[in-house]
Amino acid sequence: MITGKNYIGKDLSSKGNQTYNTFDPNANQATEWTFYEATKEEIDSAVGKADKAFQLYKNLSGAKKAQFLEAIAEEIEALGDELIQAYCKESGLPQGRAMGERGRTMGQLRAFAELLKEGSWVEATIDTAQADRQPFPKLDLRKMLLPIGPIAVFGSSNFPFAFSTAGGDTASALAAGCPVIVKSHPMHAGTGELVSSAIIKAAERTGMPDGVFSNLNSSGIEVGQQLVLHPKVKGVGFTGSIKGGTALYKLANERKEPIPVFAEMGSINPVVVLPSALQEKGVFWAQQYAGSVMLGAGQFCTNPGLILGVKSTSLDAFIDALGEEIEKLEPSCMLHPNIHSNYEKGKEEVSAQGGTDVVAVYKKQTAPNYAGQKVLTVNGVNFLKNPKLHQEVFGPFSLVVRCADANELTEVLNCLEGQLTGTVLGNAEEIERYGSVIDALQGRVGRLIFNGVPTGVEVCPSMQHGGPFPASTDSRFTSVGVSAIKRWVRPVSFQNWPQEALPEALRDNNPLSIMRIVDSEHTNKKIE
């Protein structure tokens, strides 16, 4: 049952008088669910509980934390149809997408649980003492990763499960040993409350400390700002707009004690179409990219918003085919009237720029909040001189750039901001021939794709979901896959520390049987 209250640890709370409702974009009306804006008292209480919980939670074994994560997945699944219906109602997304994303979310939680049970992720490194080393004895030094403290997580608008309440940021922070306070996204606060109830049930089932998780509602920015500025919050996870992410990043760095903000933000995900792809499979790729641009109403951070090629008759044929294929597809509902309005505004702003030509546009009337697709084309010269053409249009929109030659194509890539993904369509021989193009693309992205579409992010250890700014605030880290845990930890060295006082991961007898680096050797053996 959705109450609209805030979860302050295990307790529901509604101390404030300000309320708001979520919105059903398909019905084009507000839902019946009313939510209470979190007050400063509730924020302080949630963070205070998280700080107290941290003192206990950080010392729990990996096996115990793994039980908690697995229990969360079980409790989310136990919510059944009620959760799926809330997701669809508040997002406008179809049931199949809801079920797939729920499965991905449970899979993420279980993947982190397996990581914890194995245990080697802490990167235990040991350099044993050498009392007889000359000219100075070598000290005993042992290092591992330890959690940093309570984390504020901001729910994402476009992934109500996988990047929100129990999504990758929350799962990775809890796995690291950090309590989490979620600032629920106002577009799907009901979905967030149901998922929060599952997390609280799992915490109680597995004996976690009260305050290991809280969920706060807010339709504005004040609650999020207060969370980031709270001295007991030690890190921030965010998925959303460049404006929102950079504002939080700036706020966190202006604190007396600056804290890390790991924000995954905007991206137009450039696609380089090499000659062989156009000559051998031009129509096929046009069909694939029409579907990719339209997927989820274009509301993916990996949506292909920019397609680049060298001028030729085969590029012209590809552009024509792309236009024909995308016009065949029916629009779908966007997440919220505000997102739809921003899409229309962004689409028209780019369309108004000089030098652009329309390739395809959906001409029929659409239902409220449904996004009509559009594809434009422009030459390389006009693209280079107009930064407004470089900006993301969040929705089913793409811009095709006709470059004069490979040198101009390289120049275009070098002028782009950081991106999540970059794609190359072609054959293996062309990668060497177009070396400068590939190097330029690699310098701008976190993930390089060959002969595929960027939409779709596999949750696995090798995934890199992040890129140079403004794709993310720190390109060294990923928000997807088990490596995301490294955002919420810091290395700590123990010098000449007594065996019985060391963390288990660093003790001579290696009671966890994990892989470690001992005197430069990778081993899971005991130190004799």
Strand content: 15-25%
Oligomer: single chain
Q: Main beta sheet: strand number and arrangement?
A: 7 strands, mixed
N→C terminal distance: 57 Å
Class by SSE composition: alpha/beta
Number of helices: 15
Low-pLDDT ranges: none
Task: Give the C-alpha Rg.
Answer: 25 Å
Biggest sheet, spatial arrangement of strands: 14-15-16-13-12-17-18
Average pLDDT level:
97
Estimated helix fraction: 25-40%
The shape is globular
Annotation, overall tally of beta strands: 21
How would you describe this protein?
With 528 residues, the chain is α/β, with parallel strands linked by helices. Helices cover 37% and strands 20% of the residues. It has helices at residues 40-57, 62-78, 81-91, 95-118, 168-176, 189-205, 222-229, 242-253, 275-294, 313-327, 337-351, 380-385, 406-415, 428-433, 435-442, and strands at residues 6-8, 11-13, 19-24, 29-36, 125-127, 141-147, 151-154, 180-183, 213-216, 235-239, 261-264, 270-273, 306-310, 357-361, 374-379, 397-403, 419-425, 445-450, 489-495, 516-518, 521-523. The chain has a 7-stranded mixed beta sheet with strand order 14-15-16-13-12-17-18, with helices on both faces. Strand 3 (19-24) and strand 4 (29-36) form a beta hairpin. The radius of gyration is 25 Å and the shape is globular. The mean pLDDT is 97.
